[in-house]
Amino acid sequence: MKDIQSQEDHRRINIKKVGVKTISYPVTVLDKAKSRQQTIATVNMYVNLPHHFKGTHMSRFVEILNQFHGAIDLRNFQTILEEMKERLQAEASHMEIEFPFFLDNGRTRESLHVHRYRCMMCGSLDEEPDLEFRINVPIYLPVSRQQVAALPRSTGRWGQASISVRFTVFMWIEDLILAIENRITREIERVAENDVTELSVEVVTRNIGECLSEMEEVRSYSVRVENLCDAYSTFAMMAS
After folding, report:
1. What angle do CA 83, 133, 169 make, to 5 degrees?
2. What is the pTM of this model?
3. Consecutive sets of 10 residues in the chain, 240 residues long: mean pLDDT of each?
4. Are the C-beta atoms of 45 and 23 separated by less than 8 Å?
5. What spatial distance separates the first Cα and last Cα of the chain, rounded to whole Å?
6. Which CATH architecture has domain 130-240?
7. CATH number for the domain whose boundaries are 11-127
8. 11-127 against 130-240: fold identical
9. Is residue 174 within 8 Å of residue 32, measured between CB atoms?
């Protein structure tokens, strides 16, 4: 049979992205306390298709994913992108891996004693690699005894912080989470001590940005803090 996908296309039309998406796949991520953590990821893989190719073999994306099964993290992300670019003869390769990360930080009010954080590793490889780590950190306010009595299931959820980071060197996910949460907690305590009426999205955003600026491991970042109100939401964002 003819390999139609790899035949030359004379129309000279570039396809920006072609690939597979929403693959549910078991992965292993690094865990500072337990060495490794098993989780389920949603994976998107795609490439820029040169104009002289009619198409690409979609099965090769899955073959590459299987090749690195159990060994997917920020440290080998670039290797996977290089493999995609080479095997698919692409101008550029891209991959996104979204997964839940669980951390027992000793401060949760939930009975499971863990917090769940939505994480995503995003990478592209053209001439140079571009690797980004994204994480959503929930923000909780202290719940008074009156609130607990009225709403025994209330967790005091105020909003969330969405952070995107590019690293200079490897950094543990736990260290990033705890540094951000400690800075948020300090601001909540300051509000309580000074009898301020409410937590400000602007101030929380600046505090997280200041925290990330102080980290030697962080090359660049963006922060978005959102307060989840009943009828609407407020937000603030900044980037380095």
Report:
1. 80
2. 0.79
3. 45 65 87 85 86 64 81 77 87 92 68 80 88 92 50 64 93 93 89 75 93 94 89 88
4. yes
5. 53
6. Roll (3.10)
7. 3.10.270.10
8. yes
9. yes
